[in-house]
Structure formats: structure tokens, C-alpha cells
Design a protein that fits this description.
The chain is of the alpha+beta class. It is 15% helix and 34% strand. The strands form four sheets. Strands 5, 6, 7, 8, 9, 10, 11, 13, 14, 15, 17, 18, 19 and 20 form a 14-stranded antiparallel sheet that branches. It has a two-stranded parallel ribbon with strand order 1-4.
Length: 297
Amino acid sequence: MNVYTESTMDQKMQSAVEYLTTYAWALVVIAVVSAVLFYLGIFNPYAIAAKAQPGGCLISRPEGPNTTAYISYRGVCSNLIPEYVAQFSGQGYISGPDPSIQTAVSTYDTVSFWMYWTGNSGEVTWAEGSGSDADKYELAFPSSDSCFGLSTGNGDLYGINSLPIANKWVFVTAVMNNGGSYAGNFLLYINGAKQTLTQCSGSSQTGDSYSPFNISYQGNYFEGKIANVQLYNISLTSNAVSQLYYEGIGGVPVDLQHIIGWWPLDGNADDYSGNGDNGTTTGVAYSGTWYSTYTAP
């Protein structure tokens, strides 16, 4: 029969407390380290996933830029996520030359891209034309409204509430009509879904498409990330827009006959549409850890 004295019990209790204290600190350290690694994306499946290499997929135009005969993909074009995306700090932009944007009255252009917007106002994501072009189209977050949509730079904005799309990756597709009132002629899709648009500020304007193109814009710099910009010289159908969305951030163009510009922004601003309209980068970096906030469709 074992007999425990009060002293023996105290010693065992003290040992138990010391044991728990020691391992409690160890568990705290493990939890902190795990949280840091998770924040850095180490546990994200995209950290070890195969990624597209810059220029690994491109469009071949055997008969030269702006031709469509025998057009095809070349390289590894399997919708792999990109290695990099363009990182805008609120001070940079990408400008480009003269893609074959439709400018005649009653014609359409469609631009699509993936975007991570940090929630600041007074920013432009995509702009057509230069400052001297009247009524040029911009996809903007105005400084006076919590909206995102189409503007002609005349104090107008026709679009949607921007708050639900802040601080997350979203897929944007905009269909722009030339020479007519943009109310009813402009279509905006978010994550493949057509949006109901309202006049957030100003009044409905007559808008037009111009060259060159701009991703972010001087004076209205974008802050966040942008990837996989595609430009078409038609109005993409809703089915095509949905297909692009479900391809994910590494998706390839869905209409080779009408793609006129393709800037994956996977480490550079080159145009992989075969038309050679490479962008010029000013104050833009490329993030290799962007996937920590991305969820595939």
C-alpha cells in the first residue's frame, strides 16, 4: 500500500504545473509559427502548384500582326496559374501602342482582366486613349463615389457599388460601345455575371474608344494587382465571358479570330496576341506571392 505524504503530493503538482507550462509555451510558439507560414502562403496549395512561365503560351499569326488566317496557340497553353502578376503601388502604370481597337460608330470592344483592388478611390484600371482624347473610356473608381464602372472623364460614372469587390481577386469584363450613349450600351460583368448598372455620378455621356491603351493611368494610379488583360474587337457573348471566368486567372483567350491584345502581365508587359503591341512599364513591380489571396472559380 502506497502512502503519499503532503510533501510528495506538492512535488508532483509542481512537476505537473512545470510540465504544462513548458509545453504550453511550445504550443504557443508552434501556433505563432504556423500562423506566420500560413500568412506567407506556405500552406497554400498554389505555392507548390505548377505555374505558367512568362511567354510560355502565345498566339501565332503566320501571316503577320493583325491577320487571322491560320492563327493558333503555341507553347504550353493549359490555363496554368501565372508565376507573377503586376503589382501597382499607386504610383505606376503600363502604357501601350496602337492595338486595333474598334473606333467606328456602333462598334464594340471588350476588355477583361483579373483584379485585386485595395479599396482606394480616385483610381483607373483600364483607359483607352490619351489625355487629349475627348470622351475616352475609362474603367474607374471615382474619388467621390463608392462605385466602379465606365467613365468618360467628364465627372460621370456608370457602374456598380464597389465595396463588395474590394480586397479580393475578381474577374472584370467590360463591353464598350462607340458613338452612343453608354447607358444601355455598356455591359459590365463581375466574375462572369452580368451586372445591373446605375448612374453613380454625372449623367450618361457619349463615349468612344481610342488608342493607345493604359493599365492604370497617370494622375489616377491604381493600387493593387492586375493580371491577364485581354482585349477583343467585338462584344463577347455572356457564354464566352463565363468561359473566361471559369478558366481562372491563367485562362487563355476564348476567341482567336477577335483577340487583338493579350497582356498576361506574367513578369512583363509584352503582348502575346501575336500583334506585337508590347506595353511600357513605369513604376510597376511583379509579385510572385500573389496567390496567397486567390481562390480559383
